[in-house]
């Protein structure tokens, strides 16, 4: 890990003695140490990956785009060679009308070759234009197929986030650019090759002259692209922070707290810091890119002058006739136009290829984080008789101590089991493990004796319903918020909403179940915290799951609604097992079993009466809450 700071050469380490380095100012640099050679060697595989992607997006458009450009190149050669014949006829001795007549067949050939070339390029261009959106869509779909399947723990990993941000921000759009520029590079290369072949046919000594002009421009393009990429890579963590700050300053949800806590100056100050950093790095890169370009242009000019001087010498010493020299000038000009285009597109390909490389790297990384499917995954587990956590230990990625240590709990079919304990004691973590969202590092979660790892993850999760403490307020309609991708059934929807007390919420909305729950859209509605909580609970009831986990489902409910909800939860269990996490101990009195967690371990377990008789942690917490209600104001 190296540190760096704005205003300095981006690749010079800086100890910044005495200053605290923010986490978004530091990053791993191993990728940036790649040499030009390494990166150049990467290009062919990137091009191959891009062409593979283009082929998968549309074989027909890829074929038309490639063959159209290749054939157009062939007609360029024909046209240039025929031009030499035209010049030879026109510059020959004899009366002008005769010379023109002699040149006529070659002239017609030049016209036909030019027309055909134009037609082919137009067809190829149309195919290329069609290819772009198809490739973009394919790249994006693949990315989201992975991000929605990777294990949940990946989202606790900052490296994964950084890689995902780079892949989403630039990788996806640049995938289409790589495909587009790959084809453009083929076009440019064919154009240059056509001119080189035409020059070779005119006289073998002329061919290398064209290539001399390519070297400086190519060097400059590659160096400029690399400088740009280095800046992008270095800034990716800072950009994530900038996006986060801009969301805090311009999104609806934090808007009230930004004002209430007078956070404006603080946020703007933080934003200015990141923006300064970004600007300084960008200016530094722009300066170095401009110097590189100027150097490249100067050298290209010198090389071009050298080419024309050589041509003049060849003409003067009689190595080539005037007609060949004329056609050679034309071929060199054509070749240089193609060469400039080739260098420019190579530059873009190289640059986009680096971002596309990020996209490919992220896809590989995400594939490694896909949950391992067992060799013979059993499909949807039938409702269980027992669900056991056996000596489970779990540590979050990057955390220095376990969130759960040697935890064992048992849930019987149709039971209401409560998890209680102080903040951070591990209740939510245990619930997520029971739901199969995280895998324990030690111990096992067994569904009727079968380790959860033996089940197919998707089908397992269909048998479990988790109403998270920080449940998502989906910007969708009420119906979609409850049904959550399952087939919509009106009777079931109404029953789930009634069980959760969400029917009253729906009755108050003008569009009922079709009301859109997001004020940022026209006609959207907002709900109170408690109303949202009822909608979230209705989600839990709607799913036909063997295990339903309610993580603090009543924290935002008023006392009456809370009491009613617990009654309903008990009444609607219907053979389902309910795991209830709550701090309101009066609500868990009637649970079949209560587990008391303390610092990631089960401290006590039993029924309310058993735990009260024990006079341990549960009894203390219960008494504390009860006494708060008993206290009278003097
Ligand atoms: N994604 C995460 N990455 C790292 N550590 C985490 C993560 N989520 C929770 N923890 C840590 O794991 C421990 C248990 O957290 P957990 O959310 O399970 O507690 P809890 O009992 O549900 O708390 P609360 O009552 O406040 O909801 C805490 O120390 C917490 O800081």
Automatic annotation (TrEMBL):
Residues 387-624 form the ABC transporter domain. InterPro entries: AAA+_ATPase, ABC1_TM_dom, ABC1_TM_sf, ABC_transporter-like_ATP-bd, ABC_transporter-like_CS, P-loop_NTPase, Type_1_exporter. Signal peptide: none annotated. The keyword Cell membrane does not apply. It is a multi-pass membrane protein. SMART domains: AAA. It comes from the Bacteria. Residues 64-351 form the ABC transmembrane type-1 domain. One of its GO terms (molecular function) is ATP binding. This is ABC transporter ATP-binding protein.
